[in-house]
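Collaborator request, handled under Task 6.
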Amino acid sequence: MVINKFYNNVTHITLLPAASAYIWSEIIFYCTVPSQVTGVEVFKAIRSGKPALRVTWTTPQSDVPISQYQVEYRRSETNWRAASPVSPGSATSTLLEALVAGTVYKVRIRAVSAIGNGIWSEVELEGTYTSEFWSEFKL
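Structure tokens returned to the collaborator:
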């Protein structure tokens, strides 16, 4: 079996079974990486008395099973920070914790399969609760 990856996110797999010394055949499969994640929503949350964000999404189309999701977030124009990978591939939400109170975050997500990484979702914005808000609800 020969596996070649191309730049347009299509993987070309060639199987070469030998029927005899003179006859062989080639079977070609084209599998694409998962589609772009859609339906992304971000909600304010509180976890252990600290601001957090709950991220949910819709499972994208994929030729092969999704193994995990990669979620990244950032404040303003800082560099993207990776959250812990979300698995199994059937998951449709995660919680971003230890965030700064009263801060707007940008969040994006993509699906990962054995074929490769999907395209990042559209960036979603959401602010965390202010410290005044969540301190009123501490136990």
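The cover message to the collaborator said: "The mean pLDDT is 81. Residues 85 and 94 are 9 Å apart (CA to CA). Please let us know whether this matches your experimental observations."
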